[in-house]
Amino acid sequence: MKTPQEIGLPELLDLADNGKFKQMTIDGKKQLVFVNVSDISGWKAIAIIDEMELTGRIEEIMTPIFITCFIMLTLILASIFLLTKKYVIEPVSGLTEGVMALANGDLEYRVAIGKNNEFGILAAAFNDMASKLKANFKEIRQQNQMILWNISKQKEIEKQIARLDQLNIIGEMAAGIAHEVRNPMTTVRGFLQMLSKKEYHSPHSHYYSLMIEELDRANEIITEFLSLAKNKAVNLRYLNLNHIINAIVPLIQADATVSNKVITLELSEIPDLLIDEKEIRQIILNMVRNGLEAMQEKGEIKVRTYCEANQVVMEIADQGPGIKAEMLKNIGIPFQTTKDSGTGLGLAVCYSIAARHNAKISVSTGVTGTQFFVKFEMDQDS
Ligand SMILES: Nc1ncnc2c1ncn2[C@@H]1O[C@H](COP(=O)(O)OP(=O)(O)OP(=O)(O)O)[C@@H](O)[C@H]1O
Ligand SMILES: [Mg+2]
Known about the structure:
By secondary structure, this protein is α+β, with helices and mostly antiparallel strands. Among the domains are: 1-106, no CATH class; 233-382, Heat Shock Protein 90 (2-Layer Sandwich), CATH 3.30.565.10. It is built from eight helices and ten strands. The strands form three sheets. A five-stranded mixed sheet has the order 5-7-8-10-9, with helices on one face. Helix 2 packs parallel to helix 3 (118-196). Bound molecules: adenosine-5'-triphosphate and magnesium ion (MG). Adenosine-5'-triphosphate (ATP) is lined by residues 286, 290-291, 294, 318, 320, 323, 327, 336-339, 342-348, 370. Magnesium ion is lined by residues 286, 289-290, 342, 346.
């Protein structure tokens, strides 16, 4: 490598092309040499710049420019990110959350509407869609419930028809044979009564009483069978249920007192109904007796009457252990009994009487007691 002394100024001038930078090492330092020859005078202007110094200068100028550019770029990117987050990512994720919530069945979920731009319009449309979905869903659910209710109502009606058909068949059969059986029974009862009064039969009088009681029981059963017939004659009159209850309950109260149980009445003001007194007495008797038979000592039976939705309700509630599930399934069907001496006709008769009065019986039962409700349609005029 040549030093400036070695190459001399004229040489240096020769090495550099006119108008171009030439990199040279002068004094062991990298230098940039620029020669410009004047076309007019032929003079040469020579510029020698230390390359390191030039690079330093350039760095001095460029570093703040780079830093400024970097900061500006960062600021621009950050602004773009923040704006995108606020105006695009947040509304989109809000909508996504809404869609997920809807998909998971949360029809109450609504998204924030935010700015009045496309996302705001989309959010409003989403909320509108969610409201419509909720309304439609509610309607579908109501329709489903209605269908289920109709099905169970239909089943209940079918069950009632089947039960009444059964009762009617038994009632008609009973009517067919009752006449034939009752006549000889009346004759036998008459002779037994006559014989029991004879002096020489007095040592056996209790046998006669027993035979007469058994005949009476058989006669009662025939009467109950006859009450099951659909077309049994009824003697309908406008009467007040409360009067019938007030008249019959003292009679049963005596039975209740013997077994240390009570019957209480809670009778509200109710309109007169077109009813057969004897038959309604039968319902009260059968239901109250069942209650008494079910309860332990100190148990209470409450007989209530009240009006409810165009119906007069008679409620007979006891504090017994409730009706057994098996029995409840077949309630009102003849010969269903859990009692040794029961015929299983009591409730069947009640259902049959209720049907003749266009009344409905329902039951609610649990371990703390049973309530029977007999619901009579209120007369339009009352
Ligand atoms: N209040 C009640 N609490 C608990 N079980 C009851 C009640 N009422 C009815 N039952 C049940 O229903 C069955 C049927 O009653 P139903 O009155 O038809 O016949 P029964 O009482 O057995 O005989 P009866 O013909 O003498 O009345 C009863 O054997 C009993 O198991
Ligand atoms: Mg009974």
